[in-house]
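Budget justification, computational time. The allocation requested in the original proposal was used primarily to generate structure tokens for proteins on the priority list. As evidence of use, we reproduce two of the resulting records. The first is shown immediately below.
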Amino acid sequence: MPLLGGVGLVCILLVLGGAILAPRIAPYPATRVALRDRLLPPLALGRDGGHHLLGTDQLGRDVLARILYGARFSLLVATVSVVAAGALGLSAGLVTGYLGGVPDALLMRLADLQLAFPFILLAMAIIAILGPSLPNVIMVFVITSWPVYARVTRASVLVVRNQEYVEAARSLGASVGRIVFRHVLPNVSASLVVVASFEMARVIIVEAALGFLGLGVPPPTPTWGTMLADGRAYIRDAWWLSTFPGAAIMLLAAGVSFVGDALRDVLDPRTR
């Protein structure tokens, strides 16, 4: 694996380890309010004698604990969204690419319509109707991301379906399902893995943006985007409220992007 890919993997493992071990390594509960300890700087001592390594926010909540628990929601939203959107887009791309005709025209026009619709407007419409919640945030990403996977899959299938080994399987009487899942799907999966890695980085950043705009998971659940939004009013006097959540977003998004770039080099020899 290239150097940047290894660095990215280390970044992902750090965030993942912090998210998994949050109950054990977080110094305080993420929602614990202590108004007497509000806006303490990094490395300060609280009234109870405990250390706040990354300081506290305007309600006296420990910033490190909120970042660790917020990583859980960022990773959950990114993983579930990418898997669900990838499965939906893969299915649509396989059908349209191999069968062609009316299914191809209908699904691709639907994908074009979806891609033409502004993401923020769609997110606002869905959340305004259904309310802000974790499932609704994931639904927004699935609805807006599946056309990307569908188009990539369709383009790959259009190339693969005319290859000699596919023609040979078709001439031997193989069923459509066997041809698609045995011969076509393995040859288009590499490009999907690369697309999924970059989409995960995008979802991490956009999920934080939704939280910043108040369209993400509602308080008191700690998310990186809401932490950034809360720190806006204190950016001059309490820089740590925005700096550390922003650094966490950058670390995870950059790590996923580096791994995706490394996967592209490994899976596609033409880019080496």
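The second record produced under the same allocation is shown here.
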Amino acid sequence: MAAGSRQHLRVSTLVALCVYAYVGCWALTFATGKKVLVTGAGGRTGKIVLEKLVNSGRYDVTALVRSEASKQKLLKGIEMMNPKKVVVGDIESKDTMANAFAGMAAVLIVTSAVPSLKVWSLVPFLVGKLFGKKWKMRFGWKGAKPEQVDWLGQKNQIDLAKENNVKHVVVVGTMTGTQKDSFLNSIGEGDGDQIVMWKRKAEIYLVDQCKDSDMKFTIIHAGGLSDEPCGVAPIAVGVDDALREIKPNKRIPRADVAEACVQALECDAAKDVSFDITSIDDGQALNKDGLGDLLATLDGASCDYTINPPA
């Protein structure tokens, strides 16, 4: 065999081995590790949670989205995501998503009703500001209302988690749950619109379901969200909205909330704890494996659901 041919054969063999190794490692990320389900994976925060889990290579990750369009968009955005691991289901219908929960060790619930500003309400709002009047902007919802999404939809997910012997449920909620006059509860036009109240009802249900089982919970109440990068902003944790009294109170990057969700899976201090998380000047950056250090500042405290209980 000519020298050139032998060299070409060696190069071809080397390339083939590299491709085989890459594909083998790529496939391995879907075949090993703790089985974790991310619901609401098509949302802005849910997608970041999913991306962090997939890119870590430590988990066998499944995503739940609400439509085929959301699935295709997600697959385009996360190249390493296995298409077979993206499930389309409706959280308002247990049967449509039941298969996604089978065999899961942990579930991260990042579903939420999404408010949509009614543009016409900007006019009276701006006029009111000119004359010192507090006229509110009005909102509708992109899809179902909070009662259906944040209460009944989350309840369905919690029930499926328990029925499938899931060991750990992580829920992303919002701050202001202790406040009767929370602005977020006032943006709609009826009882079904009170998003914080319905979220709080679902959180209490989760805590109750964990009491008589070995299922653990982690409830993360995020402050106002921003799109800044992870690991830079000064972050602090607290309970019962006490952090809202600290001024200035800044927005927390979605990526930091997502990082807290991911770290909670391996952090014993995060088990059976409900806490607030936001950005303040005296906080500290959320570094890798840093959630435990943040939670240590709580001295064992957890959010008190006897404060402002939902109707």
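A brief technical remark on that second record: Confidence is low (pLDDT under 50) at residues 3-9, 11-31.
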